[in-house]
Amino acid sequence: MTVAEAERVQEELRREVDLRSSLPGRPATVAGLDVSYEVGSDRVVAAAVLLDVASVQVRQAEFVVGEVTFPYVPGLLAFREVPFLLAALERLTVRPDVLVCDGYGIAHPRRFGLACHLGVLTGLPSFGVAKTPFTARFDPPDPARGSWSPLVDGDETVGRAVRTQAGVKPVFVSVGHRIALPQATDLALALAPRHRIPEATRQADLLSRATLRTLPPPD
Hints:
Largest sheet: 8 strands, mixed
Order of helices and strands: HEEEHEHEEEEHH
Oligomer: single chain
Structural class: alpha+beta
CATH topology: archaeoglobus fulgidus dsm 4304 fold
CATH superfamily: archaeoglobus fulgidus dsm 4304 superfamily
Number of helices: 5
Number of strands: 8
Strand order of the largest sheet: 3-2-1-4-5-8-7-6
Distance between the termini: 25 Å
Number of domains: 1
């Protein structure tokens, strides 16, 4: 697939994004998703970690090893990661209520980031929690935990800068599919009782990195 073809796919799939639906209540489980890349090769490890929302405890953790074939292009990260993340999700024995991605939802130049892509393909509610604002801008939220400020691109609000820990840099929450922004914000905070990054994606990051270290050298 070329870059132009990938952008056309994004435009087509974007029509399927549902920003009107919201969760009926707090979900019981979430799956945190992340991908780690091996330096000097095309190998990646994609991890899916199922967490219990009430206890913030890991219930199951799965990973998939593969090789990326799509080039790195800002705004098209999903075309490198989605196949492996879907494969890792399929290994979970319990279907999660919500997907939490290390990346963006509609806080994306074409309003179709990784969380949107995965949400549309799986049909699951999804949102992204990113470490940087990408192309959006924001005013720093108050330093207290739980404070937030709008994440803005042009004249459109595409997410929130959320302070998950007092005095620590905010994370950037944006909806992907079938979840409201206040719900995504509340979940991001509920999943981050001790760290800046929500535990679901933090554990997925730890698993993918640890797995990479155990792999034999590439051929």
